[in-house]
Design brief:
This protein is an alpha+beta fold. It contains 4 helices and 13 strands. The radius of gyration is 18 Å and the shape is globular.
Length: 312
Amino acid sequence: MHTLHDEHEHDLGLQHDLQVMALRLRERRRLLGLIAAGGASLTLPACGGGSDDASTDTDTGTDTGTSTGTGTGTSTGTGTGTGTSTTDTGSTTCLADPTETQGPYPADGSNSVNGSVVNVLTQSGVVRSDIRSSFGGLSGTAAGLRTTLTITLVDVNNSCAPLSGYAIYLWHCTRDGTYSLYSSGVLNQNYLRGVQTTDANGQCTFVTIFPACYSGRWPHIHFEVYKSANSASSYTNKLLTSQMAMPADVCNAVYAQVSGYSASVSNLSKVSLSSDNVFGDNTAAQIAWQTPAFTGDITDGYDATISIGLQA
């Protein structure tokens, strides 16, 4: 975190502005979470990683890369950062999450690997809170620092009211930067993917690991929002596709000090939020809204909270 300068203070640039905005909007999200939960505070444990060669998962350029093997990787979005409307009700403010590319590894029925369509959403067992292990007859657990992520889904068109009964599909890379079902070495795994339905407070919780930083991308988590668990069976029914940006201070701490994340140190040094091909064209307010608030440490893991604004 930057400290205040004396009379020689000068413009610290976009990165500094983003961090300041993130801190401010995290506090707003904490208040929003308390309001949505009727004043009850929620805490979350931390994250971890897996093990595979990060070079197999590029996701660079316009994030249109093809899947490993002979997969077509048809998803093409360019992360234009749409959906910027803000609702301000006086006591509560929420932002519509911008639409971002799903990337080449969604496993939501929109592309293929080795000539076969990949759709984890139709598999029995995908609805679960702890997404660290594979399911549906597959075995394996993703290594890494435990992270418990609680999401609050709110309606930006209705005074930030919580949205209950909606389904959120979440997926992200291992601590080595690979994606289950797509990347070499984890083609026969489907961990770090799962669906949860929001409760009466608009909330759902995922237990996962902290994602890696792989070449060309800022550390992130993908998600899709569906009207219900029943409709969360194909990408054609999704209401929103977006990504969460991991906070820089937590990334630096995890990558430098937690076993298994060493490759992320170099990768992170070569990318920034402003240069990232997905987050780079968003406003500071959008990026701050897309960044979860973390508490915890590298020993016991992290709890993370984030609000997702939907134009329902």
